[in-house]
Every structure is written in C-alpha cells, then in structure tokens.
Amino acid sequence: MSIWVLGATGRVGRAVTGRLLDRGESVVLVGRESARLREIAASTGLRVVIADTAERIAAAIAKERPAVVINTIGDYAESATTIVHACLPGGHYLDQAADLTSVPRLLALHDEAVAAGSTLVTGAGFGVLATEAVVAALCEGKPVPSEVRVDAVASVAVEDGLLGTALAASIIDVLVTGGRRYRAGGLTKSRIGAEAKRLTLPDGEHAAVSEAPSAELLAAQRTSAAPNVSAATAMMPSAPAARAVLPFAGRLLRLEPLRRFAIKRLAGISAKAAPRPREHSWGHAVVTWPDGTTREGWLKTGEAMDFTAAVSAEIAARLARGEGKPGAYTPAAAFGPDLATAAGGEIIS
C-alpha cells in the first residue's frame, strides 16, 4: 500500500520521505517536473508522479488510489479540498496546515470523511501538535477548564534558498487574519501581537512571545472545551514598534492585489543558511479551572521542522496500518497526546 508525498522536493517533503523509507514504507514522490525531483528519485529508486497543479494531483490520486497522501505543498486553503476529495472514499490524507482558514475548512469535512471511511489529519507538525498535546495531557481526566493559554516556541534552522510561495503565503495570511482569541466560548477579534510576554523555558533560555492567529488556538479550544483560550508564538516580532504596525499592515494586505504582490516579493527573498537559535523547540500550555487550580506543561523537542517531519511520518505509517478512525481531526484528537512522544518529543508537566 503506497504513501504519496506531495511536494517531495521541499524541505518537509524530503525529510518525511527519508523517515518513511527508514520505516520500510512504500513511497511515491509527487511534484512538478524538475531536475531536483529526478535526482531524488534516482538516488532513492522511488517512483515519480509528475503533476504541477492541485487538479492534476487530484486526478492522479483518483486514478491510482494510494493508501495515504501526505500534502507538504503548502497553500492549503487553496489546494487541500480538491486533493482531499480525490482521496475519498477509503484513502487517508494529512497535511501540516496551521492557520485559521485551512484547518477549520478541513475539519468541516468530518462527516463526509466518516461516511467515506477515510481519516483526514490536519496540523500534522510542530504547528498544532506541540501545544495541542500538552493541553490534552493536562486536561486528561479533568473537568472542563475555564481558561487555557498556549505558547509555541519553534527553533528552526534556516536552509539556503528562496523563501518560497507556501511559507510566504502563510506569513502574509497571518497578518491578514489579524488577532483572534476565544472569549465566553466564541471566537473574537483581538489585537495581533497582544499579550506579549517573556517566557523562561525549562532549560533556562528565554523567548519573547505574543498572540497570533493560528490553528493552535482552535486545537486548544477543541481539546479543552475551555470558553477562554489564547495562543501566542515566538514567531511574531518582539519589538513594541514592530508589533504596533502589524494591525495596519494586515488591513492593507486584505486588498487582494497587495496580498498577491506581497507574497510574490516575500517568496523571492533568498535566505542564507543559519543554525537554529535554540537547542530545543517548546510547546507550552497553562490551564486554569473554575476553582482557581492551575496546571502548566511543556513539550520539549529538537529542531521544529525535524519534529514536523517525524510527526507526519508517524501519522502516515499509522494510517497505512489502518490505525486511524474515520473522520477529520487535528493530530492529538486523532491519536492522543502520546503521538508527540512517539515523534520524539517529551511532555513535561
């Protein structure tokens, strides 16, 4: 039973492929025609499917019916629904989406996936799982809390090369969405970059975090059922002056011509290789109950992109073995918080 890796030449695609091959899985590489794709295929002996649009990828999936599809191509809000429907019925799908557009859209396919006998998992990476797993562990066997805050502190090594359209679109769309939090059970607007604070990490290092719209927020609320939830990340600018202009920039970028222009310019930026800024990446959660009881927990892992590849490979292998339950889920909702430890993380509470 084959596992198809979409976007096989990208950083996550390459890393996931390597981990699956180490497990002895049958892998097919999917991507646009390129020398790089041919080189990877030649060095691994893997089969290649050439498809350069979501529609062509979906047509190939519908024809050949792979057991599992791993989508690493990004731009999930535009591509995922088309590709997901090609996997149904019976085929399984996962991606690394971590935004408040793509993730809710895929989760809305839950009933359709149940009827089709397929498992769909979104947020299969450091984004979502690193904090979701901690919330799930802290809330296990407990009553519904009154408040949850999660913080994502990713440590990412930079590779040489262009930033790329997928990452550029993710960055711009965070600004366009603006701040979000849950209050009294409803998703409400807030100021992007709000609630800035300096975290002391368990290893003694520090990280500046502030609120940003992300699927970590949605996953924490669904996992805990808490009426009040906020989510912060170390990826936001920490300087007060920079945070002050974020709302204004977001309003401008809602104009579609400006958004497209900004994505194109950002995607073309050439990055130079740089080591990860911290030894560890951290997911953090603080859960408070109505009686005032508070619990705090952390997920400790290494480089965040490596963890993302490990999570995606672990989920794909489980789905290929038939261990998924039909429906659409975030990672810990599908497989429990122990998924994070199976992918190399350590939960500290």
pLDDT averaged over residues: 92
Please give the largest β-sheet: 7 strands, parallel
Question: Which assembly state applies to the chains in this document?
Answer: single chain
What's the alpha carbon Rg, rounded to whole Å? 19 Å
**Form type:** globular
Helix percent reads 40-55%
The assigned CATH architecture of the largest domain is 2-Layer Sandwich
β-sheet strand percentage = 15-25%
The number of strands is 18
Q: Helix- and strand-based class?
A: alpha/beta
Write down the CATH class of the largest domain: Alpha Beta
Number of domains: 2
Alpha plus pi helix count = 14
Q: Give the neighbour order of strands across the main sheet.
A: 3-2-1-4-5-6-17
State the separation between the terminal residues, measured CA to CA. Answer: 38 Å
CATH fold description of the largest domain: Dihydrodipicolinate Reductase, domain 2
Low-confidence runs of at least 5 consecutive residues: none
Q: Can you describe this structure?
A:
The protein is α/β, with parallel strands linked by helices and 349 residues long. The protein has two domains: 2-125 and 306-348, NAD(P)-binding Rossmann-like Domain (Rossmann fold, 3-Layer(aba) Sandwich), CATH 3.40.50.720; 128-303, Dihydrodipicolinate Reductase, domain 2 (2-Layer Sandwich), CATH 3.30.360. Helix content is 42%, strand content 24%. It contains 14 helices and 18 strands. The strands form four sheets. A seven-stranded parallel beta sheet has the order 3-2-1-4-5-6-17, sandwiched between helices. Strands 11-12-13-7-15-16-18 form a seven-stranded mixed beta sheet. The longest helix has 17 residues, at 304-320.
